Fold this sequence. Notes:
This protein is α/β, with parallel strands linked by helices. It has 31 helices and 27 strands.
Amino acid sequence: MAKKVQTTLDFDRELFKRSVLYNVKTLYRKNIEEATDQEIFQAVGYAIKDAIVDHWMTTQKEYEKKDPKIVYYMSMEFLMGRALGNNLINLQAYKAVKECLEELGVDINVIEDQEPDAALGNGGLGRLAACFLDSLATLGYGAYGCGIRYRYGMFKQKIRDGFQVEVPDNWLAVNNPFELRRPEYTKQVKFGGYVSVSVDENGRNVFRQENYQVVNAVPYDLPIVGYGNGIVNTLRIWDAQPVECFQLDSFDKGEYQKAVEQENLARNIVEVLYPNDNHWAGKELRLKQQYFFISASVQEAVEKYMRTHDDVRKMYEKVTFQLNDTHPTVAVAELMRILMDDYYLTWDEAWDVTTKVCAYTNHTIMAEALEKWPIELFSRLLPRIYQIVEEINRRFILDIEKKYPYETGITQEKIKKMAIVYDGQVKMAHLAIVAGYSVNGVARLHTEILKNQELKDFYEMFPEKFNNKTNGITQRRFLLHANPLLADWVTEHIGDDWITDLSKIKKLKVYANDEQCRQEFMNIKYRNKVRLAEYIMEHNGVEVDPRSIFDVQVKRLHEYKRQLLNILHVMYLYNQIKEHPDMEFYPRTFIFGAKAAAGYKNAKLTIKLINSVADVINNDESIDGKIKVVFIENYRVSNAELIFAASDVSEQISTASKEASGTGNMKFMLNGAITLGTMDGANVEIVEEVGKENAVIFGLSSDEVINYENNGGYDPMDIFNSDEDIRKVLMQLVNGFYSHNDTELFRTLYNSLLNTESTDKADRYFILKDFRSYAEAQKKIEEFYKDEERWAKAAILNVACSGKFTSDRTIQEYVDDIWHLDKVKLPKKKVSDK
Length: 834
Ligand code: 26Q
């Protein structure tokens, strides 16, 4: 009989079913008819984990044997979403499991819905980390994700009376069948105290942290399954536990106090994810979180290397750290500390290793997101780390003086702009750039802005470090899992290579010209819209027409992302329809989803405004349902999948230059939505790939925005005074039209645009400046959609041209240009045909 080569899970249906029934029995003393959906989820989870563990062990054995160079992806956030469906997809067992469960009388969707979303992240940066882990495993690279096992991840958003209310998300209340506690890898992390110096018998300085508080870091491992290749990597997230104290009664009063403090520290440290996105809050606990997971991760990385090698000076040959923004940047000093204090390397030797191991990704140019720690706080919490940072700074300033000698007259200015420690602050981005061997932005435009504006001085000093890595997303989750109808359709036409090589999806291009294919495509989109309409009916009680244009903006709420521009335009359209009831208008459903940081006033008020506008418009029978407005509560990875699949229009309307990349824009494109956007972030590259005739672009360019900013902004009152339609919309913010006659509710939004009462710059994000251009673009969308042939063609072309935006491509670029990892292939298993 012919031998078949197979690298994937040999999925044995009978074994799986038996395993589920067995798990239900031993875990709950029930048979499947008696078990709850949650219990069945647990049973299925353990059955799948069982299969994964074999691959996990094989992979790790292979790594030990081949000793490839590996990457540690250090990140405060991993926004993984649910694991079950994703693991099944990557094991190539989704359909089989679906059928097995059907045979047991169980609906796989219901079971998937039992799993809490692992929301250990805010938004783009955390989700990017999750996509990267998926791609690393799928491409066969050795990688560890290193992060924090927050007890509470991103809050759950409830909408009460139109306002956002934050509810803690106790995701650990439900057991996670996929995680593995690894107490044998526990590390100790020290905070506070002071540093003593003594000289040892070899004449070396010995630095010791004394009188510190210590916390145990206990790792939990989560498997990261590669697609169809048997590789299973690890996401290691650290929990904090108090160290065992001696008998409390033997303490004197001082020690007792300390023991209690230490226990509180352990309890607090991993309690909650800071729900800020693109905004820095200088909270002491946040710095503790950073050092906690970094110290544990770096200790483990060094120890692991030394288990199989003997010279720590060569660690860079086998290990690299990627710092996901500046949040993990203390890794630089922690690695220096371990190399010098524990392995007795000299400063120069330790610096050589560190600067060959650490690399940094920048995700923002928003000034308010930059991390600057007060020296007082930093040095009190991390006394030894601070000494090292100070010394890095001292030496760096010598380098500045060498490059810009005093006779140039610019030395002081350069020091002021570039020093790591300056003005009582520790600047984490400067530390990451100076100690890293690579600095990358996340889209071409973003990297150019870094080089030419934000980090110009550093680029001048270290041009060789700067490079671009345009973000990407995993097509396994965001097409194969999220949109099975479209995924199957794509595979029917071009085969399934796209699943691991998204560049192949360009073969779809020819089908854009085929009438029947366009029909099929639009039909799939329609069915996905019906699915979303049902979700909206269930969650919002609002009826939306799946034949209307689904116009969607889902992302974190931030002023620079300009949800306010979107809703002001909806208000404008509504006025138009009311004033001209007979005007032609293609029915539109405006869909929003967004969480606002809990303390972000204008963001929260924008949510209220969207809901207030929805209330008025959705209940106005006179407009015949031409506009519907829907705010989807608790936007997160799991409902994002439904939303992308059902979208016609992808709203990517940030003020040009502000959105570093965006990744939602790519998920929409992959699912055949048309981008309505500014020339910002990765939108630029999306338009370049799909052609500007297949997207709708509007607004100021980033150069224009930057120009205005450098010249004190612009005066929105000119627009207010000259544009009657805009004025009417703005007056509706303060005349009670959408707020039951409350003229104060939305006044701060009004003020933010016109600056009538504050000293802040008016309309910092150019909403009024871009309004007319946006309204025209929206008109174009309508004309475009009415021409169904043209729309369908453009939508298919968006799918077909999305190849560049796979995170597989991004990861391969990181590997080629930054990490230089070795690829690992598992020996192929021979399975005989049955
Ligand atoms: C910092 C200090 C204290 C508390 C919180 C923070 C914090 C947390 C999260 C600062 C920033 C973030 C997140 C930033 C982020 O998500 N940036 C996005 O990264 C994406 C991936 O590269 C890009 O696509 C987006 O453009 C960018 O906004």
